[in-house]
């Protein structure tokens, strides 16, 4: 089912001709009073209610926003399946610059749209939205996670997201070099915001050498002032070309691995928190052909969704951390499946996730 009443022609084309395909429901939301324009995409509810965050971003067009929602929702289906959660995949995007148009009225209107789905979609934080925003949304919608502890939630999910990525890097090191230890390994982190700066802490605690970059100077300064041993470089292009880099950890927006970046990567492992790192199909093969081990993003960055899912049954940090620690074993299992099937790790992860969703659909 797709609600497309009054949708522009380019949006309709994106909905019905997207190469992502297979979505159960897409809802276009508009509230003129608050200025809200949003897209809620439900890819699959085979494993349970769709779970995924709300991205608030100044998209260039409505069609671009729809395409991003479709892509992100599909990714959440695979992420939740690989994380062992009883949730399908969904995602919402709010169109606009959050610094300019975000308001209590807009968030409440958005909450009413989520509530209208009757629990088929559970929302949380993403790029451009924060715990305080979810507290507002929750006033209109009980299917909201990522709330503050004061409002019955678990708070910031970036802590466990970074922990899961750290486990993914350790598993990658185990597979690539025969030892999960990161001491004296050089790791480049692109994006040191909500998740990236926590990841830096984990890496330094184990004795890794860390190089960082971010488009926001204040984010870089926060890390380097706290940790003088951390080296900063001007941009991502400089980072990925750095000699002696062992691991590249993209922790900003998607599309980090593309036809321009893969040929110049010096790292032998790519493992980061960013969603949708592969810019297009075929990039995973390009990485494999260069001998670069890619840890599928939706597998290693699942710590956050593990946390927000747990919030629905009464949050317990230690229980969540124990589940997020399993990302180490899950990542190793994907590498083993990739080797046995003769395919890249990204394809192996997809096969495992698709099998779990298919089995759930067969059970009805």
Automatic annotation (TrEMBL):
Residues given in the record as NAD(+) binding sites: 191-196
Known pathway: Amino-acid degradation; L-valine degradation
Glutamate/phenylalanine/leucine/valine/L-tryptophan dehydrogenase C-terminal domain location: 155-364
Predominant place of localization: cytoplasm
Membrane recorded as keyword: no
GO cellular component, one term: cytoplasm
Localization per Swiss-Prot or TrEMBL: Cytoplasm
Active-site residue list: 91
Signal sequence interval, chain numbering: none
EC number: 1.4.1.23
InterPro entries for this protein: Aminoacid_DH-like_N_sf, Glu/Leu/Phe/Val/Trp_DH, Glu/Leu/Phe/Val/Trp_DH_C, Glu/Leu/Phe/Val/Trp_DH_dimer, Glu/Leu/Phe/Val_DH_AS, Glu/Phe/Leu/Val/Trp_DH_bac/arc, NAD(P)-bd_dom_sf
GO biological processes: branched-chain amino acid catabolic process
Catalytic activity: L-valine + NAD(+) + H2O = 3-methyl-2-oxobutanoate + NH4(+) + NADH + H(+)
Keyword S-adenosyl-L-methionine part of the UniProt annotation: no
Record's keyword terms, sorted: Branched-chain amino acid catabolism, Cytoplasm, NAD, Nucleotide-binding, Oxidoreductase
Classification via CDD domains: NAD_bind_Leu_Phe_Val_DH
SUPFAM superfamilies, per the entry: Aminoacid dehydrogenase-like, N-terminal domain, NAD(P)-binding Rossmann-fold domains
Top-level enzyme category: oxidoreductase
GO terms for MF: nucleotide binding; valine dehydrogenase (NAD+) activity
Protein name: Valine dehydrogenase
